[in-house]
Specification:
alpha/beta, Leucine Aminopeptidase, subunit E, domain 1, Aminopeptidase, nine-stranded mixed β-sheet, six-stranded mixed β-sheet, 15 helices
Length: 462
């Protein structure tokens, strides 16, 4: 993604001029007769998304016009790297810092490709870094999003629990953190019984990666990500259609890792902790069974009403550990329920929060950076649907309605939600159909929103 940028213009760099519809008429009056004739012949009116390549006398492109309509978003610019002819372009005209940042981020997102298993790559146009944009911020954002997308897109054989926890180790090494990985039967010795129960039947052992970074004197922020590297459903086996995309079931972990990387690279004054429980939900002789009862890290007993509701099981141990330190903020990310997708569609993550103030801040941050979420209720009356006759609670509700809410209420049992700020994000982590800047495949939805929230809460400037 960063390969699509250049440090400075070259001899043949083409000016790229953004034009809003409202300013187009006055701009075009000041152009040469030949330029006027060309623009008229192409039908360019500066409508949103329109592109016009204006030739010079020798037939080369003298300037590229881009229609902004009444305004643009980040993704308005994402089609340009593939639509424009190969070459180097420089943003031209009266461009403020906010627009420069928008252009650079949208341009970079538009060049993402997952190429681990193929040699051929697309050819993209190159953009000179726009003046006024926060280049370090754009670089860490693009690198972190690219990493998260790559993790989700990688098949489960190569992105297994061992590989996923190694990514966390590598992140700690890259940016100066410390990482401990607890794996296999050591999870039982360290009291992570639900992480072990979910993953014990798989070829690759279950694990918990625990990264710490930053000054212990700074406010504590803890990120938790669901790392189910593949979800067969366990003994409550999924059908083929339901299982096909389950390499993406570690999308919550990938999102948490992307947010952590942005925070660390920005050197935010926080004491960051990243907890990634990593498992495969497999079928074997020692797989957990329906109606098994597990005593969790918190001491609550959970009856396994359905082995395919495994994500909340591995999260509950990690959340209990996160909560034990009473951080200023706990954020968990999970591809948790199909019910959230039914309610909000595949592109809008569902947000649940124990505190209105921080939820409002996250919603505002998401809208500001074009990475929206929608808040859903933690409706206390639905807690009864998680009651079990033999344990403290069941991991699955006794009703098919309100599944995203009951899943969030299950997780809430493992945090001191009246005291500690906690937010849960239920995400699809996958684009079903590609659009510029948002290709089909893995996506770390809400990662930029969360990074912006943390920047606003804890950082003076980017």
């Amino acid at each position: 993604m960063l390969e699509s940028f250049a440090a400075r213009p070259s001899k043949n760099t083409v000016p790229l001029l953004p034009l809003q519809t409202s300013e187009f008429k006055s701009w075009v009056k000041n152009q040469s007769k030949s330029t006027l004739t060309w623009i008229k012949s192409t039908g360019f009116k500066a409508k949103h998304g329109e592109v016009c390549l204006v030739p010079s006398r020798d037939g080369r492109v003298s300037k590229a016009l881009f229609g902004c309509g009444d305004g643009t978003t980040i993704f308005s610019w994402s089609a340009l790297p593939s639509r424009l002819p190969k070459g180097r372009y420089v943003l031209f005209g009266d461009v403020d810092a906010a627009l420069a940042e928008q252009v650079a981020l949208g341009w970079g997102l538009g060049t993402y490709e997952f190429t681990r298993y193929r040699a051929s790559k697309k050819t993209f146009a190159t953009l000179v870094w726009p003046e006024g944009c926060d280049r370090p911020k754009i670089e860490r954002t693009l690198t972190s999003i690219g990493l998260g997308r790559d993790l989700i897109n990688t098949p489960a054989e190569d992105m297994n629990p061992t590989a996923l926890t190694q990514v966390v180790r590598d992140l700690a090494k890259e940016l100066g953190g410390e990482c401990e990985v607890i794996s296999g039967k050591k999870l039982l010795a360290e009291n992570y019984p639900t992480v072990h129960a979910v993953g014990r039947a798989a070829k690759f052992p279950p694990a918990l990666a625990d990264l710490r970074w930053g000054d212990p004197k700074h406010p504590k922020v803890t990120l938790v990500g669901k790392g189910v590297c593949f979800d067969s459903g366990g003994l409550d086996l999924k059908n083929p259609a339901g299982m096909k995309l389950m390499k993406k079931d570690m999308g919550g972990a990938a999102t948490a890792i992307a947010v952590a990387r942005m925070v660390m690279a920005a050197a935010l004054p926080v004491r960051l902790r990243l907890l990634i429980p990593a498992v495969e939900n497999a079928v074997a002789g020692d797989a957990m069974r329906p109606l098994d009862v597990i005593t969790t890290r918190k001491g609550l007993t959970v009856e396994v009403g359905n082995t395919d509701a495994e994500g909340r099981l591995i999260l509950c141990d990690a959340l209990a550990e996160a909560d034990s330190e009473s951080p200023d903020l706990i954020l968990d990310f999970a591809t948790l329920t199909g019910a959230a997708r039914v309610a909000l569609g595949s592109e809008l993550p569902a947000l649940f929060s124990s505190h209105d103030d921080v939820a409002d801040e996250l919603i505002a941050a998401g809208l500001a950076v074009g990475d929206p979420l929608w808040r859903m209720p933690l409706h206390d009356a639905y807690r009864r649907h998680l009651d079990s006759r033999v344990a403290d609670l069941s991991n699955i509700a006794n009703t098919s309605y309100g599944g995203a809410i009951t899943a969030a209420l299950f997780l809430r049992e493992f945090v001191s939600y009246r005291k500690n700020r906690w937010m849960h994000i239920d995400t699809m982590a996958w684009h079903l159909a590609g659009r510029p800047g948002r290709p089909a495949g893995g996506e770390v939805m809400a990662a930029r929103a969360c990074a912006e929230l943390l920047q606003r809460r804890y950082g003076a400037s980017s």
